[in-house]
Amino acid sequence: MQIVKTVDAIRAHSRHRRCAGKRVALVPTMGALHDGHMALVDRALELADDVIVSIFVNPTQFGPGEDFDRYPRPTDGDLELLGARNVAAVFMPTSDEMYPFGTAAEIALSVGSLADHLCGKHRPGHFEGVVQIVSKLFIATEPDVAVFGLKDAQQFVIIKTLVNALGFGIEVVGMETVRNEDGLAMSSRNRYLHEGHRRQAVVLSRALQAASRLITEREQARDALVTAMRHELALAPDFEHQYAEVVDGRSLQPIDHIAPGQDLLLAVAGYFDRTRLIDSAFVTAPGSSR
Ligand code: PAF
């Protein structure tokens, strides 16, 4: 497994492999790898001959007061996990390598209405930072396919749109969220939780399950779904919920009334002390869309 630090070197690696007729996959991460990331890597290994994993804690997607400085960076452990898989290269650039003109002088892309709600509403500039770094990673690694987790569902929809809008010509694959036994979605931020909060954190997935159940039972009112999600979240006394929402699964715009066959995204977010957790689920309403 090669450890590659520069854009020129990772591009040369990818071009060399693609010229040899090999299919290259990219798994972008911020490190602090867990089983959810490893599921992305395993999927990438099925989809391509050569898998590149990037590890870069991207400063431009963190807002003021967020956890950029304390974001976990267990590099040795991450490399050990990846070394046990058949990963061809780990791309670990420095901030200067990715932002040679400094982050303030960078060129940014605007995301538009897909970022108006859910995390985009509560983390202004976050998705602009995500599309900026993902574009740079795509340009540096020139993959055929890139694999992302669906826990960050809004990010996934935005990246798919980015790829289509800018014509990157990269297949974007989403992987189901990997969960702990009690349902808590795997997340690098779970390691911030102390035992009590870790136990309470099960409410996020339970909130999604409660709303999904109602949708299956043909509940069509958004308010009923939101009330059910908030009810579950309130069962964790230390959880400060930020949002519990149901939006259209494609436009990511809020809806009042669910249409038969409509693709939906259920999403929740909030805090245990300073630790922000999110969870989400794509669901299709029963019935025919015609
Ligand atoms: O999902 C993440 O870990 C990050 O947002 C990503 C896609 C690696 C960009 O920094």
Word description of this protein:
Helix 3 links the parallel strand 3 (50-55) and strand 4. The termini are far apart. The protein is of the alpha/beta class. The strands form two sheets. Strands 1-4-3-2-5-6 form a six-stranded parallel beta sheet, sandwiched between helices. It has helices spanning 7-19, 35-47, 75-83, 95-98, 118-122, 126-141, 153-166, 195-200, 202-216, 222-233, and strands spanning 2-4, 24-29, 50-55, 89-91, 145-149, 171-175, 239-248, 263-272, 275-284. The protein is globular. The structure holds pantoate (PAF). Pantoate binds next to strand 2 and helix 6. Pantoate (PAF) binds at residues 28-30, 58, 61, 130, 133-134, 152, 155.
List the helices and strands and how they pair.
Elements: E1 2-4, H1 7-19, E2 24-29, H2 35-47, E3 50-55, H3 75-83, E4 89-91, H4 95-98, H5 118-122, H6 126-141, E5 145-149, H7 153-166, E6 171-175, H8 195-200, H9 202-216, H10 222-233, E7 239-248, E8 263-272, E9 275-284
Parallel strand pairs: 1-4, 2-3, 2-5, 3-4, 5-6
Antiparallel strand pairs: 7-8, 8-9
Helix pairs in contact: 6-7, 9-10
Bound molecules: pantoate (PAF).
Residues 28-30, 58, 61, 130, 133-134, 152, 155 line the site of pantoate (PAF).
Can you tell me the overall shape? globular
- Give the terminus-to-terminus CA distance: 51 Å
Helix content bin: 25-40%
Bound molecules: pantoate
> How many extended strands?
9
Query: Mean pLDDT, rounded to whole units?
Result: 97
Q: Rg from C-alpha positions?
A: 19 Å
Number of helices: 10
Structural class: alpha/beta
| Low-pLDDT segments, ≥5 res | none
| Cross-sheet strand order for the largest sheet | 1-4-3-2-5-6
Largest sheet: 6 strands, parallel
Q: What share of the residues does DSSP label as strand, in percent?
A: 15-25%
Order of helices and strands: EHEHEHEHHHEHEHHHEEE
